[in-house]
Amino acid sequence: MGRPQGLRSTFTGIAEGIGLDEKTVRHIFRDHVDELEKTVRFETPTWVGIARPS
Predict the structure, then answer these.
(1) 13 occurs within a structural domain
(2) When comparing pLDDT for 20 and 7, which is higher?
(3) Over the chain, what is the mean pLDDT?
(4) Residue 44 falls within a domain, yes or no?
(5) Is the pLDDT of residue 5 over 70?
(6) What is the widest separation between alpha-carbon atoms in the chain?
(7) Higher pLDDT residue, 53 or 25?
(8) Domain membership of residue 12 as a residue range
(9) How many domains does the chain have?
(10) In this structure, is residue 47 part of a structural domain?
């Protein structure tokens, strides 16, 4: 629910659906990812706990 089409379909499928070249769709997606990378940061935890099954 609510996921962008680019996360549900292939670049080829999107390109065919909207009438663009697949390479153009890949470039648009890459530009979007580049913008996200400027603001979104994933931090890894200092400690990771692993629980044993009971």
Answers:
(1) yes
(2) 20
(3) 85
(4) no
(5) no
(6) 54
(7) 25
(8) 5-39
(9) 1
(10) no
